[in-house]
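Continuing from the previous page...

OK, I double-checked the sequence for Glutamine amidotransferase against my notes and this is the correct one:
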Amino acid sequence: MFTLEIDGTAVAVINGDEETARDLFTCDGFKSDIRELTSAGKPLWNGTSELKVRPATEDEIEMFEDALAEDDGSGDFEPVEAHADSEEDEDEADIVFLVDIDEEDEEDEDGQKLDA
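Thanks. Re-ran it with the corrected sequence; updated structure tokens here:
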């Protein structure tokens, strides 16, 4: 397993080999996602910091495994075309974020933010 580290913070873990980790963590679609996703109100990536891919620590692997064990498959995952690839589904790797991701505000049909 490999970890994506940004500015000294472990951001995500992937259960693939190093080549797969580098490919996914540095693809344009993933970089776009981590610029838009926020944690504590700040983007995960500022668009300029180095995206460091390194072997995952034992603690990070444990967090990854715990997250997958808790996943009941009922999340709101939506495939993104930017991530579409010709590879088969069986070749896909799982990615778990190690930081708390802020929830997006809900919007109505016209794209207006709804009060929670």
